[in-house]
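WARN  no MSA supplied for this record, continuing single-sequence
INFO  ligand: flavin-adenine dinucleotide
INFO  echoing inputs
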Amino acid sequence: MEKIVISGAGLVGAFLAVALKKEGHDVEIYEKRSDMRKGPADGGRSINLIATSRALNAFTSAGVLAPVKKITVPVTGRMMHSLTGELTYQPYGRDESECNYSVSRSLLNMTMIDEAQKAGVKIHFEHSLESLDADGGKAIFSGKEVSFDRFFGADGAGSLTRKALLALNTGATEEVDFIDSDYKELFMPATAKGEYPIEKKALHIWPRGDHMLMALPNLDGSFTMTVYLPKSGENGFDRIKTLEDIKQFFEKHYPDSREHMPDFASEFFANPQGRLGTVKMSNWVYKDKVALVGDAAHAIVPFFGQGMNCGMEDCFYLMSFLKKHSWNWEEAFREYDQRQRPNGNAIADMALENFIEMRDKVGDVRFLLKKKIEHKIENAFPELYRSRYGMVTYTLIPYSLAQRAGLIQDRILEELSNSIDSVDQLDLDRALELINKEFVPFIKEHNLTLDRYKEGQKVEQSVLHNELFSKKMK
Ligand SMILES: Cc1cc2nc3c(=O)[nH]c(=O)nc-3n(C[C@H](O)[C@H](O)[C@H](O)COP(=O)(O)OP(=O)(O)OC[C@H]3O[C@@H](n4cnc5c(N)ncnc54)[C@H](O)[C@@H]3O)c2cc1C
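INFO  complex generated
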């Protein structure tokens, strides 16, 4: 039994604690904030998340899928709202069985904290990491010295654990880049009858070039809204100074949302303005002592809905490698770093690309045509083609391979779309020819199956994904 200390009882820290405790370790978490179950959770940052295959797989592996499922709402596609109120629906997956799960971040966090405590993890709230002596196995949290055998930094994007590793002079480096857009949360309540005011099964987007509004459903008929605006400029946060300014902004850009959001103007000024950025760290582990997980290792922008999913996948592979290496921590940490860091970098880059896609392109006619073509070929040739979005969201294919697959797919879709104006004109024989020529060799080379991860499916933890999921293509 090892004495394990985790800094941060966010989504990933609390989940990792459950997984380690269930393996019989002595696990304690030190959390900077007070217990969110006892007070207002997030001070205007309720944030709804999309949980997909990677988080579902991790939850299944640690036996916490059932309590999580209870607090989620299935979402089957994107609903785009044009300026004139016209709606366009894009299904996410091949059919309705492929869906994402919308969940409130604070509710999910509280559920994970409950599960950790049920498993016997000790959580010390209002204890903030101040310093870390990795080699000496000691950390200071709010003046209290704590000793450990292993230490996990799950303390989010601004991780002090990461800073402590950087200060060790091992040559480790970090890159931190903020995008030029910020966000604010707003709220769309349920109707007087307790019903959803807009389509329940969709993530709603109002794409408007350099800014957008998004909505994700909650359990009670309401939606959590997020507005993303540039920090400054014509549509920037800095131009919106009064209630009248924000009312006019919504009237001009998101008119069909207004009738359902009675208090958006006052909420806009009451709620905090959040920053969005990417953090990449050159080394996620230190000897057999310290490992970074979740946003502490790889904060990413939220536009692929994968930050938390990737963090849960970190924990899944950490646990896998610990078992594979019979609890040789140094070897397990090394393999975790080698496997998961390139994947963290890949999803960070894809999330930035998706920012551009959601902001600028989802209203673009050619882009929508390519999406329709992709949906058609994905359904026509399910054994041979799976979109990058589908790979990231519905399979456990490593992010880095999904990223490379996406580049091949861009070429195929460009060629199929450049001489037609409607998906009805698509030449499926030509599509098959291109897929066989360009894409099939890639999936054969990497031994990938395109089947989706099925919710609750038990994945053997001791082996790598590729070995588990490989299905030789004939
Ligand atoms: C607008 C938005 C939408 C998002 N949508 C999605 C989505 O759809 N899907 C998805 O998968 N992800 C999404 N994400 C990302 C997701 O929220 C994060 O990836 C996830 O919260 C990371 O969890 P974490 O536990 O690593 O970090 P955090 O949730 O940040 O938790 C870190 C914890 O560490 C604590 N802490 C910090 N410093 C210290 C310290 N010095 N000492 C002790 N404790 C400390 C904090 O108080 C906190 O409790 C979104 C993020 C945003 C901002």
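Residues 467-474 have pLDDT under 50 and may be disordered.
INFO  checksum written, moving to next record
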